[in-house]
Task: inverse folding
């Protein structure tokens, strides 16, 4: 049972570089989301998707792009990394049900922008 | 800003003492979820509450959802060192149930 898989686990970028954080789930979940976690700030929603081909912004979308071409994959792109994007990033997925929308989280990607 | 406010931010207890964290929303929530994150780990789902006034128990953990569905609490009886971690509440914003907004969490430290 792989669940939600995020890669890489650690990454160091230079300011201005671009990169893609990968997220894949094998549970056939329709909902997928990206969060960033900073000390004292909890988990803040960056972008989310309710299904393949559909994405929308969360609380802190600036500087990030997403796409959802398949149910399984939901990559997060940093177009031009900035030190303010140093954070731990979590991808999550959940089933589209009215009574149980438990979110399953990946192990996280620790990103440092220097 | 955060849709759900969570207090306290930190709590230090002696092993065996009780612990409570509170979550408040400015709007009515269709449901509220609770997660636990161990140090260095990822959030793990604990429970979901849906009904007004609902109370659920998991061993030493008691979860409550307020009558107005705007507040919730998690109470741990007789804490153990294994309870260490950060506890988050989360609620959906709008009609998209998978669009979860999290509180800032309560970081629990348990001294042996």
Result:
């Amino acid at each position: 049972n792989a669940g939600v898989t995020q890669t890489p686990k650690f990454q160091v970028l230079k300011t201005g570089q671009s990169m893609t954080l990968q997220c894949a789930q094998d549970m056939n979940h329709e909902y997928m989301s990206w969060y960033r976690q900073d000390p004292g700030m909890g988990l803040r929603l960056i972008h989310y998707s309710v299904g393949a081909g559909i994405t929308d912004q969360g609380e802190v979308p600036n500087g990030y792009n997403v796409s959802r071409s398949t149910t399984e994959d939901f990559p997060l792109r940093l177009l031009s990394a900035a030190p303010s994007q140093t954070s731990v990033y979590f991808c999550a997925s959940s089933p589209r049900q009215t009574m149980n929308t438990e979110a399953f989280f990946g192990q996280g990607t620790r990103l440092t922008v220097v | 800003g955060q849709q759900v406010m969570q207090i306290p931010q930190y709590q230090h207890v002696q092993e065996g003492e009780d612990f409570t964290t509170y979550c408040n929303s400015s709007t009515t929530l269709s449901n509220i979820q609770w997660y636990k994150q161990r140090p260095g780990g990822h959030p793990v789902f604990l429970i979901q509450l849906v009904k007004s006034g609902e109370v659920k128990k998991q061993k030493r953990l008691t979860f409550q959802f307020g009558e107005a569905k705007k507040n919730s609490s998690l109470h741990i009886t007789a804490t153990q060192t294994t309870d260490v971690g950060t506890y988050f509440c989360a609620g959906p914003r709008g009609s998209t149930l998978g669009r979860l907004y999290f509180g800032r969490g309560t970081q629990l430290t348990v001294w042996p």
Q: What stands out?
A: The CA atoms of residues 65 and 97 of chain A lie 26 Å apart. The interface with chain B takes residues 30-31, 33, 35, 40-45, 48, 50, 56, 58-59, 90, 92, 94, 96-108 of chain A (CB under 8 Å). The mean pLDDT of chain A is 94. Chain A is about 0% helix and 50% strand.
